[in-house]
Design a protein that fits this description.
- The chain contains 6 helices and no strands.
- With 224 residues, the chain is an all-alpha fold.
- The protein folds into 2 domains: 81 residues; 143 residues, no CATH class.
- Helix 2 runs antiparallel to helix 3 and helix 3 packs parallel to helix 5.
- The longest helix is centred in the C-terminal third of the chain and has 36 residues.
- The protein is elongated, with a radius of gyration of 20 Å.
- This is DUF6534 domain-containing protein.
Length: 224
Protein backbone atom coordinates (compact mmCIF):
# COMPACT_ATOMS: atom_id res chain seq x y z
CA UNK A 1 0.00 0.00 0.00
CA UNK A 2 1.31 3.44 -0.95
CA UNK A 3 2.36 5.78 1.86
CA UNK A 4 0.56 9.14 2.38
CA UNK A 5 3.67 10.98 1.19
CA UNK A 6 3.69 8.95 -2.02
CA UNK A 7 0.01 9.63 -2.64
CA UNK A 8 -0.01 13.36 -1.90
CA UNK A 9 3.53 14.56 -2.65
CA UNK A 10 4.72 12.65 -5.70
CA UNK A 11 2.99 15.09 -8.08
CA UNK A 12 4.25 18.28 -6.37
CA UNK A 13 7.77 16.84 -6.10
CA UNK A 14 7.92 15.91 -9.79
CA UNK A 15 6.44 19.30 -10.64
CA UNK A 16 9.17 20.99 -8.60
CA UNK A 17 11.89 18.99 -10.38
CA UNK A 18 10.44 19.92 -13.78
CA UNK A 19 10.04 23.55 -12.71
CA UNK A 20 13.69 23.76 -11.65
CA UNK A 21 14.74 22.42 -15.05
CA UNK A 22 12.65 25.09 -16.77
CA UNK A 23 14.08 27.71 -14.41
CA UNK A 24 17.58 26.71 -15.56
CA UNK A 25 16.50 27.13 -19.18
CA UNK A 26 15.03 30.56 -18.41
CA UNK A 27 18.26 31.60 -16.67
CA UNK A 28 20.29 30.54 -19.71
CA UNK A 29 18.00 32.59 -21.95
CA UNK A 30 18.40 35.61 -19.67
CA UNK A 31 22.20 35.30 -19.82
CA UNK A 32 22.03 35.02 -23.62
CA UNK A 33 19.78 38.08 -23.77
CA UNK A 34 22.09 40.16 -21.56
CA UNK A 35 25.14 39.22 -23.64
CA UNK A 36 23.57 39.80 -27.07
CA UNK A 37 20.92 42.51 -26.71
CA UNK A 38 22.59 45.20 -24.65
CA UNK A 39 21.15 47.93 -26.90
CA UNK A 40 17.51 47.12 -26.15
CA UNK A 41 15.27 49.68 -24.48
CA UNK A 42 15.56 50.01 -20.71
CA UNK A 43 11.88 49.10 -20.31
CA UNK A 44 12.43 45.77 -22.06
CA UNK A 45 15.51 45.03 -19.96
CA UNK A 46 13.50 45.84 -16.84
CA UNK A 47 10.75 43.44 -17.90
CA UNK A 48 13.27 40.63 -18.44
CA UNK A 49 14.77 41.31 -15.00
CA UNK A 50 11.34 41.26 -13.35
CA UNK A 51 10.42 37.95 -14.98
CA UNK A 52 13.72 36.37 -13.94
CA UNK A 53 13.33 37.59 -10.34
CA UNK A 54 9.78 36.20 -10.22
CA UNK A 55 10.93 32.87 -11.66
CA UNK A 56 13.72 32.73 -9.06
CA UNK A 57 11.26 33.44 -6.26
CA UNK A 58 8.88 30.79 -7.54
CA UNK A 59 11.64 28.18 -7.65
CA UNK A 60 12.67 29.08 -4.08
CA UNK A 61 9.11 28.76 -2.77
CA UNK A 62 8.70 25.38 -4.50
CA UNK A 63 11.89 24.01 -2.93
CA UNK A 64 10.96 25.40 0.49
CA UNK A 65 7.54 23.72 0.34
CA UNK A 66 9.11 20.37 -0.59
CA UNK A 67 11.58 20.77 2.27
CA UNK A 68 8.69 21.43 4.70
CA UNK A 69 6.67 18.38 3.69
CA UNK A 70 9.38 15.84 2.88
CA UNK A 71 12.32 16.77 5.15
CA UNK A 72 11.18 18.83 8.15
CA UNK A 73 8.07 16.66 8.59
CA UNK A 74 9.57 13.42 7.30
CA UNK A 75 8.20 11.39 10.23
CA UNK A 76 5.02 13.43 10.66
CA UNK A 77 2.35 12.28 8.16
CA UNK A 78 -0.17 14.62 9.79
CA UNK A 79 1.67 17.55 8.19
CA UNK A 80 0.25 16.41 4.85
CA UNK A 81 -3.18 17.54 6.04
CA UNK A 82 -1.91 21.11 6.39
CA UNK A 83 -1.78 23.60 3.52
CA UNK A 84 1.66 25.15 3.10
CA UNK A 85 1.17 28.71 1.85
CA UNK A 86 4.55 28.72 0.12
CA UNK A 87 3.26 26.02 -2.22
CA UNK A 88 0.21 28.06 -3.21
CA UNK A 89 2.42 31.12 -3.64
CA UNK A 90 4.05 29.39 -6.60
CA UNK A 91 0.67 29.58 -8.35
CA UNK A 92 0.35 33.31 -7.63
CA UNK A 93 3.90 34.04 -8.77
CA UNK A 94 3.36 31.99 -11.93
CA UNK A 95 0.28 34.07 -12.69
CA UNK A 96 2.34 37.25 -12.23
CA UNK A 97 4.93 35.96 -14.71
CA UNK A 98 2.16 35.23 -17.20
CA UNK A 99 0.62 38.64 -16.52
CA UNK A 100 3.85 40.50 -17.30
CA UNK A 101 4.50 38.50 -20.47
CA UNK A 102 0.87 38.74 -21.62
CA UNK A 103 0.89 42.51 -21.15
CA UNK A 104 3.96 42.65 -23.37
CA UNK A 105 2.28 40.46 -25.99
CA UNK A 106 -0.85 42.64 -25.80
CA UNK A 107 1.31 45.70 -26.42
CA UNK A 108 2.99 44.04 -29.40
CA UNK A 109 -0.40 43.06 -30.84
CA UNK A 110 -1.57 46.65 -30.44
CA UNK A 111 1.54 47.88 -32.29
CA UNK A 112 0.94 45.36 -35.09
CA UNK A 113 -2.79 45.95 -35.45
CA UNK A 114 -3.20 49.52 -34.18
CA UNK A 115 -6.47 48.29 -32.64
CA UNK A 116 -7.23 48.02 -28.94
CA UNK A 117 -10.03 45.47 -28.60
CA UNK A 118 -7.88 42.31 -28.63
CA UNK A 119 -5.20 43.73 -26.27
CA UNK A 120 -7.97 44.87 -23.89
CA UNK A 121 -9.47 41.37 -23.83
CA UNK A 122 -6.04 39.85 -23.18
CA UNK A 123 -5.40 42.35 -20.37
CA UNK A 124 -8.82 41.66 -18.84
CA UNK A 125 -8.38 37.87 -18.89
CA UNK A 126 -4.81 38.06 -17.55
CA UNK A 127 -5.85 40.40 -14.74
CA UNK A 128 -8.68 38.03 -13.85
CA UNK A 129 -6.25 35.14 -13.62
CA UNK A 130 -4.04 37.14 -11.24
CA UNK A 131 -7.05 37.85 -9.05
CA UNK A 132 -8.02 34.18 -8.96
CA UNK A 133 -4.46 33.13 -8.07
CA UNK A 134 -4.36 35.66 -5.23
CA UNK A 135 -7.72 34.35 -4.00
CA UNK A 136 -6.24 30.83 -3.94
CA UNK A 137 -3.39 32.07 -1.73
CA UNK A 138 -5.92 33.70 0.62
CA UNK A 139 -7.78 30.38 0.86
CA UNK A 140 -4.51 28.66 1.76
CA UNK A 141 -4.21 30.97 4.77
CA UNK A 142 -7.86 30.59 5.79
CA UNK A 143 -7.85 26.78 5.54
CA UNK A 144 -4.19 26.03 6.25
CA UNK A 145 -5.09 23.28 8.75
CA UNK A 146 -7.36 21.35 6.38
CA UNK A 147 -6.42 20.22 2.88
CA UNK A 148 -9.98 18.92 2.41
CA UNK A 149 -11.56 22.33 3.02
CA UNK A 150 -8.91 24.02 0.89
CA UNK A 151 -9.62 21.72 -2.04
CA UNK A 152 -13.37 22.17 -1.61
CA UNK A 153 -13.12 25.95 -1.81
CA UNK A 154 -10.47 26.18 -4.53
CA UNK A 155 -11.57 23.62 -7.11
CA UNK A 156 -13.63 26.31 -8.86
CA UNK A 157 -10.92 28.97 -8.66
CA UNK A 158 -8.28 26.58 -10.01
CA UNK A 159 -10.58 25.65 -12.90
CA UNK A 160 -11.17 29.34 -13.70
CA UNK A 161 -7.42 29.96 -13.49
CA UNK A 162 -6.68 27.26 -16.05
CA UNK A 163 -9.51 28.38 -18.34
CA UNK A 164 -8.05 31.89 -18.40
CA UNK A 165 -4.64 30.44 -19.30
CA UNK A 166 -6.14 28.68 -22.30
CA UNK A 167 -8.21 31.69 -23.39
CA UNK A 168 -5.32 34.17 -23.19
CA UNK A 169 -2.86 31.83 -24.94
CA UNK A 170 -5.30 31.09 -27.76
CA UNK A 171 -6.09 34.79 -28.20
CA UNK A 172 -2.42 35.73 -28.30
CA UNK A 173 -1.53 32.93 -30.72
CA UNK A 174 -4.43 33.65 -33.09
CA UNK A 175 -3.79 37.41 -33.08
CA UNK A 176 -0.08 37.05 -33.77
CA UNK A 177 -0.64 34.46 -36.51
CA UNK A 178 -3.26 36.62 -38.21
CA UNK A 179 -1.26 39.85 -38.19
CA UNK A 180 2.05 38.21 -39.06
CA UNK A 181 0.43 36.32 -41.93
CA UNK A 182 -1.23 39.52 -43.15
CA UNK A 183 2.11 41.32 -43.01
CA UNK A 184 3.96 38.95 -45.37
CA UNK A 185 6.12 40.93 -47.76
CA UNK A 186 6.46 38.38 -50.55
CA UNK A 187 10.23 38.31 -50.11
CA UNK A 188 11.46 34.76 -49.58
CA UNK A 189 13.82 35.61 -46.72
CA UNK A 190 11.22 37.62 -44.81
CA UNK A 191 8.53 35.00 -45.39
CA UNK A 192 10.80 32.28 -44.00
CA UNK A 193 11.32 34.41 -40.88
CA UNK A 194 7.56 34.89 -40.54
CA UNK A 195 7.04 31.14 -40.91
CA UNK A 196 9.52 30.46 -38.10
CA UNK A 197 7.79 33.01 -35.88
CA UNK A 198 4.41 31.46 -36.63
CA UNK A 199 5.69 27.97 -35.81
CA UNK A 200 7.23 29.20 -32.54
CA UNK A 201 4.09 31.07 -31.46
CA UNK A 202 1.82 28.17 -32.36
CA UNK A 203 4.03 25.61 -30.61
CA UNK A 204 4.54 27.50 -27.35
CA UNK A 205 0.92 28.58 -26.97
CA UNK A 206 -0.42 25.15 -27.84
CA UNK A 207 1.87 23.65 -25.20
CA UNK A 208 0.72 26.00 -22.44
CA UNK A 209 -2.93 25.59 -23.50
CA UNK A 210 -2.57 21.81 -23.35
CA UNK A 211 -0.99 22.00 -19.89
CA UNK A 212 -3.78 24.28 -18.70
CA UNK A 213 -6.49 21.94 -19.97
CA UNK A 214 -4.75 18.88 -18.53
CA UNK A 215 -4.38 20.56 -15.13
CA UNK A 216 -8.04 21.56 -15.09
CA UNK A 217 -9.15 18.01 -15.95
CA UNK A 218 -6.89 16.52 -13.28
CA UNK A 219 -8.21 18.93 -10.65
CA UNK A 220 -11.81 18.08 -11.51
CA UNK A 221 -11.07 14.34 -11.61
CA UNK A 222 -9.24 14.29 -8.28
CA UNK A 223 -12.05 16.29 -6.71
CA UNK A 224 -14.49 13.48 -7.52
Amino acid sequence: MASPAEIFMRGPLLGTFFGIILYGIVSMQVIYYVQNYSNDRSSLKFMVAVIWILETTQAAFSMYAMDYYLIVNFSNPNALSNVNWELTMTCAIGSLVDYVSNMYFAWRIWKLSEKLYIPIIIAFVSTGRCGVAIATCVYSLLYRTSVTLFRHHTVATLSVCNVTIVVSDVLIACAFMYYLHRGRSGLDRMDRLVNRLLAYILGTNLLTSFVGLATMLLVRTRQH
